[in-house]
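Attaching the record inline, Q. Sequence:
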Amino acid sequence: MASIAPVTRDDYDDWLMLWNAYLVFYETTLDAETSSVTFQRLTDPEPPIHGAIARDDEGAAVGIVHWLTHPATWAKTDYCYLEDLYVRSDQRGTGIGKALIEHVRGWAERNGSAKVYWLTAESNTTARALYDRVSTRSGMIHYQIGL
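Structure, as predicted:
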């Protein structure tokens, strides 16, 4: 089974490989500076965004997850937003995605969050099958305005 640990500065090369694969999966690109800032945020001593990396028994990086918390109007405590979750394609279906979600859920519970929530693409059927097993769909529809 994979081990999961917080992302550290020593994880940069492995994190970047997984991060770039995640961006390819979602058919998007980011400039190198944005990726660099993201990694700096993840490894800050007081991280505004938290991250964990999953490694297989041989130590190879196989997945990443990023999350953050924010104040809520419908709860007295924060909500935890799971922003990014990626598992290498050859590792999907092995329990790593579920373990990464559980890692965030446990962190959020220990830190007093009222809930963990996330978004995914409607077309992401493989991940949605997992999400339907480990969570409840909210029925909400996501809208956004780019600035």
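The domain at 3-134 is CATH 3.40.630.30 (Aminopeptidase). Strands lie at 3-6, 50-55, 61-70, 79-87, 116-117.

More tomorrow.
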